[in-house]
Amino acid sequence: MINDEINKKIETLSELELSDEEKEHLKEDMHNIIEFVDKLKELDTLEVEPMLDIFQRTNVFREDIVQNNANLEDTLKNAPKVIDEKFVVPKTIQ
């Protein structure tokens, strides 16, 4: 059973601040999910072949064809900032 301690941990890990009503709703939802998973465990799936996709699609990839359709000027004209014919982006790693 999902108790308040587990609920608090979920709230903390998800960085959410839940109202008392939302906490109770979360507890009920988590309980229902666990019950459903337990029910699924009862199924005999020994002879069921695994699948990746319920639609059983085949490979939809196409062959890559190298094309040089854009010139440098057209490519850079919409960039917010360009230095030495290169895109300037905010630093993401310190």
Gist of the model:
With 94 residues, this protein is mainly alpha-helical. The chain has helices spanning 4-13, 20-41, 72-76; strands at residues 82-83, 86-87.
Describe the secondary-structure layout:
Elements: H1 4-13, H2 20-41, H3 72-76, E1 82-83, E2 86-87
Antiparallel strand pairs: 1-2
Describe the structure.
The chain is mainly α and 94 residues long. 39% of the residues lie in helices and 4% in strands. It has helices at residues 4-13, 20-41, 72-76, and strands at 82-83, 86-87. A two-stranded antiparallel sheet has the order 1-2. It is flat and about 60 Å long. The model has no long low-confidence stretch (mean pLDDT 88).
- SS element count, helices: 3
Radius of gyration: 26 Å
The tally of beta strands, per DSSP, is 2
Round the mean pLDDT to the nearest integer and report it: 88
> Which sheet architecture does the biggest sheet show?
2 strands, antiparallel
Which regions have little confidence, pLDDT < 50, spanning 5+ residues? none
Features:
two-stranded antiparallel ribbon, 3 helices, 94 residues, mainly alpha, 2 strands
